[in-house]
Amino acid sequence: MTSKKDYFDRTLTVTTPGSALAILAAETTLSRTRIKDAMAKGAVWCTQGKRTSRLRRANTTVSEGDRLSIHYNRALLAQEGPDLVCHQDGGQWAVWIKPSGMPTTGSRFCDHLAMTRRVTLQTHRETYLVHRLDQFTCGLMLMAYNRQTANQLATQFESRRVHKAYLAVVHGRLNEALGIDVPVDNKEAFSEAVPIEASQDFSLVRVRITTGRKHQIRRHLATVGHPVVGDRQYGYARPFDVSAGLQLVATELGFECPVSGEHVSCRLPITYHPDLDALRLLYSDHSA
Question: Where in the chain is the domain with CATH 3.10.290.10?
């Protein structure tokens, strides 16, 4: 059972100006060390007027009328994020390899386990989000190191000038290429799925998308009767799928460098690609 000391939300209005650390220490049962750790990992927020932001520095002074919030989850704060691999560094931008299971952005409880914050901590540079990948999708992800570059790159995504392709392992045999144009959330969406290797139980497919709707690939493949292996939301929640994890990987990314104007083409190393042999063995174990 989780103790109230290990998991709680607390919001208070500052009545006397002073140190945020001292105020939170007086109003909670946490030690100053634990509050500092929570601040550094993004669990403390401050609202000043209409602006709410994370409060990281322990020596920050808050004013009367400010609102302090701490969203404390000891189990989350105790976790350590992995070191990330930079695939290509363009100076004002970089393409990183996002691990499966890592969220793109943080929650109110913390952000030290999220992609954007991990890159900031690893590079000691402010990091700006350009696009998203689902939490359990791994692969190539483009990040910017200043707001102008982020806006320029985001414009390329919005105008559909970015090349995006994925590898997915799906249930069933897919024998021919499919163009899927089923709207997603009442918005135009297009995916092209081309089989690379097919067997009775699984097919490895390359998926190219020109739009970037939420869960687009997963929803489209499920719509045509070939849900992604490991997709418990749109596919199956069988023990095999739970063990396999989501078999969707962002393998190709192409865009125009906002600094040089040159085309950049990135391909994910094969070591990160889905392992069909391992999946077949896992499937055999679950079918025995």
Answer: 7-78
Domain 7-78, CATH class in plain words: alpha beta
Predicted TM-score of the model (pTM): 0.92
Active-site residue, 134 included: yes
**Structure tokens given for 69:** 């919030």
* CATH code that applies to domain 85-287: 3.30.2350.10
Of the residues 66, 111, 134, 241, only one is catalytic, namely 134
Are residues 245 and 136 in contact, defined by beta-carbon separation less than 8 angstroms?
yes
C-alpha pair distances (Å), 24 with each of 6, 215, 220:
15, 39, 47
Tens digit of pLDDT for each residue in 66-97? 999 999 999 999 999 899 999 999 999 999 99
